[in-house]
Amino acid sequence: MDDTRRSYDATAEDYATWIDGELTTKPFDRAMLTAFAELATGPVVDVGCGTGRVTAFLRDRGVSAFGIDLSPRMIEIARRTYPDLRFTEGTMTALAIEDATLGGVVAWYPTIHVPDSQLPTALAEFHRVLTPGGHLLLAFQAGDEVVHRTRAGTHDVSLHFHHRQPDHMAELLAAAGFTVRATLHRAPDEGGDYPEDTAQAYMLARRVSVPL
Questions:
Q1: H-helix or E-strand containing 37?
Q2: What is the DSSP pairing of strand 87-89 with strand 65-69?
Q3: How far apart are CA 24 and CA 58, in angstroms?
Q4: What are phi and psi of 64, to 5 degrees?
Q5: Which residues are CB-neighbours of 91 under 8 A, at least 6 positions away?
Q6: What are the pLDDT digits (tens) for 110-147?
Q7: Cα 99 to chain center, whole Å?
Q8: Across 9-13, 129-133, 174-178, least confident range
Q9: Residue from 185, 163, 59, 56 nearest 109 by CA
Q10: Interacting residues of 85 by C-beta distance below 8 A, sequence separation 6+
Q11: Which residues does 28 contact at the CB level (< 8 Å), separation at least 6?
């Protein structure tokens, strides 16, 4: 967690400039976020919100959304960029949110930095803060490997990227008290301004039960 925080603090300004237009180039990403926006009722937290771009995307579609991120520098940029939205520092494994108070949780790629041993804790937190019937949207890199990156642009970092298969994530979600309503598993975008080197996965789930 400390390495992840330090890495994103170091790259925050460059990352904010680079990522700004990404959603406009990703139709499948927008489709999943839009479907989630139509289904979620009540307030929504964008966990791992980074610069706040997904929080703002949801706001623009009528969602009462706020963001939480591990990186103080990312939160600073989000507040500066979207002063009308609420952003706070926090961790997905211990959300400072009361039980059963949210209509939705978006985790747009933050779980890729969570090791297998801590992922059930994060999913349990998502379940805890959702009202019964509330929706969870996950985005993650699909695969079986763990990639360690030590450079991001001109910055030294230490980031682990945990790739996971959708079937395995579905099992973890079921154990946490969710049922999967939709899954999108797509090939990597190889061109454009935001090329990818791995497949991407998106899962829309609903809180339906007490965790197993």
A1: helix 27-39
A2: parallel
A3: 14
A4: -85, 90
A5: 1, 70
A6: 999 999 999 999 999 999 999 999 999 999 999 999 99
A7: 20
A8: 9-13
A9: 163
A10: 52, 55, 56, 59, 65, 66, 67, 78, 79
A11: 184, 186, 200, 202
Q: Is residue 89 within 8 Å of 72, Cβ to Cβ? A: yes
Sort residue 109 into left (φ over 0), alpha (ψ -120 to 50) or beta. left
Phi, psi angles (nearest 5°) of residue 13: -65, -45
**Structural contact between residues 201 and 131, judged by C-beta atoms closer than 8 angstroms:** no
Angle at 155 between CA 154 and CA 157, to 5 degrees: 145
By the 8 A CB rule, do 55 and 85 touch? Answer: yes
What does the CA dihedral 164, 170, 171, 174 come to, rounded to 10 degrees?
140
Please say whether the beta carbons of 202 and 183 come within 8 A. Answer: yes
Q: Is the pTM of this model over 0.90?
A: yes
From residue 17, alpha-carbon distances to 54, 69, 159 in Å are 15, 18, 20
